[in-house]
User: Fold Cysteine-rich receptor-like protein kinase from Phaseolus coccineus.
Amino acid sequence: MTVLWKMKRSMAWNPFKLIFLCITFFIFATRQAKGADDLYRFCSEEDRSSDNSSYQTILRTLLSSLSFNATANANGFYNNTILATNSSDTVYGLFMCRGDLLPHACKDCVANATQTLSSDTNCSLSKSGLIWYNECMVRYSNLSFFSTVDRTPALYSWNVANISSNLSSFNSLLDNTMNETTHEAANSSKRYSAKQGNLSGIQTLYCLTQCTQDLSPQQCSDCLVEAISRIRTCCDGKQGGRVLFPSCNIRYELYPFYRVTDDAPQGLVPETTYAHTDSEYSEDPGYISHNCSNNNSDAAFRSNLGTLFSGLSSNATSNYGFQTHEGTAYGLFRCRIDIPSRLCQLCIQNSTDKITSECGLASTEAIIWYNHCWLRYSDRNFFSSTETSPRFVNLNFSNSNPIQSSVASELSNQLAKVATMTGNTDNKFQTDDSLRLNDKQTVFILGQCSSDLSSNSCIGCLNDVIGTAIPWSSLGSLGGRVLFPSCILRFELFQFYNLTPTTPTAPPPPPGESQRRTIILIVTSSILASGILFTFCYYLIRKNIRKHSRAILQENFGQESSTIESLQFNLPIIEAATSNFSQKNKIGKGGFGEVYKGILFDGRSIAVKRLSKNSKQGIEEFKNEVLLIAKLQHRNLVAFIGFCLDEQEKILIYEYVPNKSLDYFLFDTKQEKVLSWIERHKIIGGIARGILYLHEHSRLKVIHRDLKPSNVLLDENMNPKISDFGLARIIEIDQEEESTNRIIGTYGYMSPEYAMFGQFSEKSDVYSFGVMILEIISGKKNMNSHESHHVADGLLNFVWRNWRDETTLNALDPKLKENYSNVEVMRYIQIGLLCVQENLDARPTMATIVSYLSSHTIELPFPQEPSFFLNHRTNPIVAHESSSGQDANTSIPSSTNDISISEFYPR
Ligand SMILES: *[C@@H]1O[C@H](CO)[C@@H](O)[C@H](O)[C@H]1NC(C)=O
Ligand SMILES: *[C@@H]1O[C@H](CO)[C@@H](O)[C@H](O)[C@H]1NC(C)=O
Ligand SMILES: *[C@@H]1O[C@H](CO)[C@@H](O)[C@H](O)[C@H]1NC(C)=O
Ligand SMILES: *[C@@H]1O[C@H](CO)[C@@H](O)[C@H](O)[C@H]1NC(C)=O
Ligand SMILES: *[C@@H]1O[C@H](CO)[C@@H](O)[C@H](O)[C@H]1NC(C)=O
Ligand SMILES: *[C@@H]1O[C@H](CO)[C@@H](O)[C@H](O)[C@H]1NC(C)=O
Ligand SMILES: *[C@@H]1O[C@H](CO)[C@@H](O)[C@H](O)[C@H]1NC(C)=O
Ligand SMILES: *[C@@H]1O[C@H](CO)[C@@H](O)[C@H](O)[C@H]1NC(C)=O
Assistant:
């Protein structure tokens, strides 16, 4: 059990690492993360040889032959087999370089990869291993894998920046470009293709697909199609993403991460030229630009602004970044930290003077950028939000004569690296001069974010600069800058910053670390096979959260304590919004309090959850929980807006979703609208993605614990939004053990293990989701709470019997008369049945479910008879503990935004 021991030791402080270890444990593989610049490495721990064995010698021979053969002739790919006298010691291996790589770069990458594998004590003894870099991969095994398509282990990663333009047109461009690329890659001898799509005037979408060259065109195409189908799962709405399988991989970005044309770098790269003070490091504050809004401010605001400015100015003597507010006037400044503090002070003095003279205190919002600093104010609280406009862009465009494609590719990759490094420094500032283009030219880069941003928001902001502000296909010369309100990026061929800063900058974390922030690993099939281990890991994690919860919070939110300010609302504001909690604004009542509709002063419609007074939580704990909830942002989750804390009151504020909840459309007999199959299909998919986000992709693992149709709200476009996630710990109840002695949830949707023993996990959410699928398809309620004592023949049983007897379509909602596909309906029913299996290991994970839903080609396992635990619900633990008050009231259709529960785990 050495693996377990290692897990225990290393998980003490880093919950992310902990989840990671659990996942690698499932696939019996391990990775060492000691600052190497590989993306990931997997080396099987299941099957290992011993020190100085003949296998180890043969593996060394193989790795050195790969490295040796990474020559120009190899064309970026080479496979080899080293035969042994004992056939179980034979080793098969290959390397593959990214198709656009020049031979010397390929050779370097393969040399690093083989070197890393043979010096990694785990890998050098392992019977199979795999390592991925940006530019190449190396793989070996004692079993032949040539000419077969392998999809595990899989690695998914994405660009933190979100798509801000129209998502559906982005997605269709992505689909089409990927489709063309796939076709071309499968039919080319290198099994590689990269293509661009024109997204807008200056934005280009760059797509790359590649298979190992041992695959046939058909195999390559199959592998790539599967990889593309996973993009929606990992990377939907993101500016970049990749799916790496052992046999093929795909990637897309809004910057040229590969060489678009075949030109090799040659000659000097054209420089951008500037006026004197801007062409080197200068002590001049260097005014650049400003932007005032047209709105007129009132006298009170103007007076606050005066005070705000003097507060900012006076703080510039001791700080390089400061934010504060005076009444409703919010302001911040940020200085570059490579300058001495007297220059910061001078720059802020100059900015407040200039902004006053230019905007005349009449604007409600303004920003001014200098070479040394920038300063903003507004009448709204903009702290901690990433803002990308107004923007200042100073770059040379040339459609006819852009810089060489190889340079654009090197530059954009380096800028992306600097973006990540900047976000990971303590002071969100990073300079870099490691990119040498040739003997004469070095690129100097400076990235900085507003200090109120979290690491991820900073990385996202800078990536947004790289993806949306730099015209990669028509950049005319190397050099320029982009200034956003939340972050700035400059790159030049001369040194424009102070190389010996006066304040020490926090060292960037080793690259391996920084990469991992943006990468999450999902290994679907193997996880399925190891449900027991998963449960084990899961409990281990959970135990630890309690021990180290403070450290975890510190780690997750240390720098974001200011966030809590922006989320907090005063009671008078909430009272005004809800007309003093008037009865006519009341829209629901749940086990944990009442729900009101309200209109906030800025016009936003909100749902106000007034928690009943029996919560035992202290103020700090409450705030911490709220901060966790605020991190959960996904299009299929109801947006969290803030909270209010008063001596008597604990209130949570969510966006108000105008349409009714799903149960109304499914079960209310009075309503006229019948959901079409297309709508049901879309609702099921949306709910699945929302739960997957909670389970896998959010910063903290969240188990909802009360998924049911009344907790799924539908917006005007019938997009589902899950509500009431993340409330478990606020409402809780002393609870020490993994299993809770008080069952929170709703009968009919609770998994047997949860209802009977209080054990909850992702798989209990999967169960609830399965019940929902079957209800959505059949239009029948699983059980009515009034009948909960004598359910003899629930929905699950009904659907199961029809499925078993091959009359599956009888289970379909009779109101659905046409426009559905039999195959699709039957497939969805089968998925629903798989989710409600009694044995939790037999239930798929949400990641698997999402892949089942999005692909018609994945074969589904056969379900067993689901459990009808309600039949033997004599267990006294269950009998008296329903606490979601909602269901006593099923006749109120607008159960919008009730309260229920969910639980967080660190990842
Ligand atoms: C393997 O060989 C090295 C040097 O040949 C030796 O120092 C080491 O003790 C050996 N290890 C084992 C487990 O035999
Ligand atoms: C690969 O490298 C080995 C040496 O490790 C060499 O003997 C062999 O000829 C090379 N193969 C090719 C195809 O270049
Ligand atoms: C490389 O892969 C091909 C295709 O599967 C296979 O036929 C060939 O034997 C492999 N070459 C070596 C040296 O193993
Ligand atoms: C081959 O190696 C395996 C394990 O490495 C061993 O069990 C087996 O006895 C060996 N066979 C021969 C013929 O040496
Ligand atoms: C190879 O390793 C060296 C030293 O660790 C590093 O500087 C270089 O960038 C690496 N090259 C590649 C292609 O990863
Ligand atoms: C991709 O191409 C295949 C065949 O070339 C076609 O059937 C499929 O519909 C295309 N998909 C998209 C999204 O264009
Ligand atoms: C910094 O700003 C705050 C709030 O505006 C103000 O109260 C304080 O005096 C300033 N600090 C210094 C050192 O001037
Ligand atoms: C801004 O700074 C410069 C010094 O670089 C100074 O000459 C100028 O007077 C300052 N402007 C204002 C408005 O303070």
Q: What stands out?
A: Residues 2-141 form a domain with the Killer Toxin P4; Chain A fold (CATH 3.30.430.20). The two ends are 23 Å apart (CA to CA).
